[in-house]
Amino acid sequence: MSKNIFITRKIPDIGIKMLINKGYSVDINPKDEVLSQKQIIKYLKKKNYDAVLSLLTDKIDSKVYDSAPSVKLYANYATGFDNLDLNEAKKRGIIITNAPGDLTSEAVAEHTIALMFALAARIVEADEFVRQKKYKGWEPMNFIGEDILGKTLGLIGAGRIGERVAFYSKGLGLKIVYYDVNRNEKIEKEYGAIYCNTVDEILKQSDVISLHVPLLDSTRHLINEERLKMMKPTSFLINTSRGPIVDEIALEKALRIKVISGAGLDVFEFEPKITKGLLKLQNIILTPHIASASVEARNQMAEVAAQNVIDFFENGKPKNQVN
Ligand code: GLV
Question: What is the pTM of this model?
């Protein structure tokens, strides 16, 4: 029997084709923009959908589940899944999947390293200086930055993405310390990463802190005012995970009064809103949640999400079920 699938916003063709090739009927939000929860509900009421391919910008909770009782699978086109209420889904027998992949981890790790170098070499500030026609010739003390070689990277979260960041960091000559609820033997053996028992130990000794944890009740505001004060005044904070892991108001203050030296954020606590004051700071680099935005990663995410839908219909066992 043909299945009806709703995709909340256009994703790479490769995933859509996989679904169409299976003979499923696929409807896609015709506008290339984020749907509000009300709009999602409105679309879902139009047909008896069997599955929804959702995005991380969609807030999916009991209101959505109850408005579309025929939908038994929400396949999220993202590694993260904090945009969906997993418990409420479980109560209703609804399956939730995410879309992790080695190429996504790769893209996010590369973006993390790009932010690290951009902060250390002050690339964005310097670019702006040149664009504003302020460059009048070489100066001995202009835009003095930092070397990365020999510095200590503090990884908070050593899953797929953290592991890949460790791979690059080892190659770049950084020492690696890490914290995770689970130890990662691979990064200890292959990249010489040293496990620390607490987040605080990591913060105190690292020159660069990089966050790679999921957003959970236990990780919300993991980096708060008190913890920012534990960091070295010369250190950088990089967040490519989820915005609310960092108390952004505390971060703005810490950067303004130089409690830490700089930050690179790809995600924001109140995204797409940016906390007041952040845009005025020179010592922060802001990218618009694009860490996984490589052709390779996004195509793989589309394939993984589509495969989860197919597996769900064919054998009831999608590989990436998270609830
Ligand atoms: C991006 O943030 C993702 O979760 O895939």
Answer: 0.95
Rg (CA), the chain: 21
- In this predicted structure, what is the pLDDT of residue 1? 67
Q: Is 240 in the pocket of ligand 1 (CB under 6 A)?
A: no
- Supply 49's token pair: 């959908």
Q: Does domain 4-98+296-315 have CATH number 3.40.50.720?
A: yes
205: burial class by Cβ within 10 Å (0-12, 13-18, 19+)?
middle
Q: Which residues contact 288 (CB under 8 A, 6 or more apart)?
A: 266, 272
Low pLDDT (below 50) residues in the chain: none
Could you tell me the distance, in angstroms and rounded to a whole number, from the CA of residue 301 to the centre of ligand 1?
9
Indicate whether residue 56 lines ligand 1 (CB < 6 A).
Answer: yes
Q: Which atom of ligand 1 approaches the CA of 81 most closely?
A: 4
Farthest CA pair distance, the chain: 72
E strands, the chain, in order: 4-7, 25-28, 51-54, 73-76, 95-97, 152-156, 175-179, 194-195, 208-211, 236-239, 262-265, 284-286
Q: Which residues are catalytic?
A: 242, 271, 289
Return residue ranges of the chain for CATH 3.40.50.720: 4-98+296-315, 102-286
* H or E stretch covering 306: helix 295-315
CB of 80 shorter than 6 A to ligand 1: yes
In the chain, count H helices and then E strands: 12, 12
80 Cα: distance to centroid of ligand 1 (angstroms): 5
For strands 262-265 and 236-239, give the pairing: parallel
* Topology of the domain covering 102-286: Rossmann fold (3.40.50)
Q: Which segments within 58-174 are labelled E, that is strand?
A: 73-76, 95-97, 152-156
